[in-house]
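Running this now, will post back.
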Amino acid sequence: MIAKLLIANRGEIARRIQRTARDMGIRTIAVYARGDATAPFVGEADEALALDGTTPAETYLDIELLLDAARRGGADAVHPGYGFLAESAAFARAVTDAGLVWVGPPAEAIEAMGDKLVAKRLMAEAGVPVLEGVEIGDEIPSFDLPALVKAAGGGGGRGMRVLRAGDDAEAAIASARRESARAFGVDTLFVEPYVDGARHVEVQVLADAHGNVVGCFERECSVQRRYQKIIEEAPSVAVDADLRSRLGDAAVAAARAVGYRNAGTVEFLLGPDGSFWFMEMNTRLQVEHPVTEAICGMDLVREQLLIAQGERLDLDPTIDGHAIEARLYAEDPANDFLPSTGVIRAWEPASGARFDSGIETGTPVTPDFDPLIAKVIVHAPTRAEAARRLALVLERTTIHGVGNNRDFLVAVLRHPEFEAGATTTDLLERIEVPLRRRLTDDELHLALTAAAMVSQHANRASARALPTIQSGWRNNVMPPQRMRLRSGDAEHLVEYASRRDGTYTVTIAERTRTVAVLRVEDGRVDLDTDGRRMSLHVTRDGADVWVHGPWGDIELTEAPRFPPPAGVEVAGGLSAPMPGKVVAVNVSVGDQVERGQVLVVMEAMKMEHTIPAPHAGTVTEILVAVGDQVAQGAVLLALSGGDETVDGLG
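Update: finished.
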């Protein structure tokens, strides 16, 4: 029996494993790199051990450091979570060689499925349908278009590129090769046919050491952006009873073919005509496992731990209702989904859903790791009800301090194509989803009013006047108090004056309202505006102000009373749109470039981002080199031919 479990991971999945381990009476050990000492997953473990690695990301990949922590902590088992070392045969073998229980599949199964080309051959031999893949060597092989370039050594969307007629295949393959090498340690790529109008459907399997393999139905993960899943659901609307049975049989056959044990996921591409093909097997727990848990009424981490202890599977799962999961990412949809960093200033999950997150108020979001903030899961009797409730829960959740994709997710969930179940992998290319929520004047004015009222309350609380004197009180007629707030590119003037009855007159854009402040406490402000009562959450950090209401969040910035001194700009300077690492500089000083030509490639949160030329011109100066870690706004190079300093977009 496992008594003490070391979790070789961090963030959301570490907390998820801790929760089940506690319920089973198993003590947990967290490991943490520099910068994670105050993270929630560290504080919630029974014991936490620091890892002295080189960089935060590399620390969690250091097998020797992790095994040393297991020895120091007296662990008798290791759970790798997902990502990082979860699909490392070397780590699985090192754990078992150290005499510890490995909560995962055998190293041999990881190796067999770790190379996607080898996996395809094994599946074909086992009778599982596959799409033929061709390895890309030094020379690019001939292939029909459209085609999909994939990394042979891993998944998760990294090292993947779709090639269509007119695309620069050489540049796409070079980019995929770099990304694959950084993500998986190998740069082997292959190409396979790309199926238009397909769906991404996967089957959860569990296998014990006694030869029992159980399929736990399918999940659909077709709603993707840049091959990254953002909304997953179970079951799939495209799968009927007969197809479900055939998919399940193929997944079980795949697991048996490699002597699988523990939890795994067999991923399929489902064509418009109901044909399906094996894509890969993820030899670990999936990020989207909660939707399967919801419809089957099970705890997959518990099953993992029971299997690792040698127990037999005792499951006969059935489908109950529908579950949908949305992934909240720290990224800015309106800025080409570039990663966002900062500090979570306020985090209040709404009721009505399961939240799996690695954050709390005060948690920093850095460029070192995946930008996932939280997973939000809703289980309901029907798909329509689950989608509507998930959208509402997302809107009601307060998240301040870091740009995120919450409004984008809500818009997708409420789009008619999603509601109709037309969730092919090209959904987000086919439909128009607003990248930024369009505010009504009423929503904006209410947010501006709340920000102004909280500001005056804070000013009053810190004032040295007699506490019985009303804020803004004068013994003569004075002009109203003023506050200037920016929303996006627009600046708004809020004028307010106190009245004898304790209310305020608030004027915005020549419209005056009567406002009563009923309560201000812990960031909450209750307002009565012309007979309409609202409760809002206001968070302030310096000049930045976030207001959360029934519609979601609005970000504001208080304009300074006096203009700041002008900064020094590099003429024609091209700046970094986010903090990250420079992985390629494709030009030299003196080069003539065309508009759209990729000049610099950066990596942030495990993904590549290209910095193209905003206009034709000549490279006059290069200020960075490959390997440099740069801050957001740092000037990368100077380009003649433009009139303004511009941010890189990619």
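Residues 441-462+477-558 form a domain with the Glycoprotein, Type 4 Pilin fold (CATH 3.30.700.30). More later if anyone needs it.
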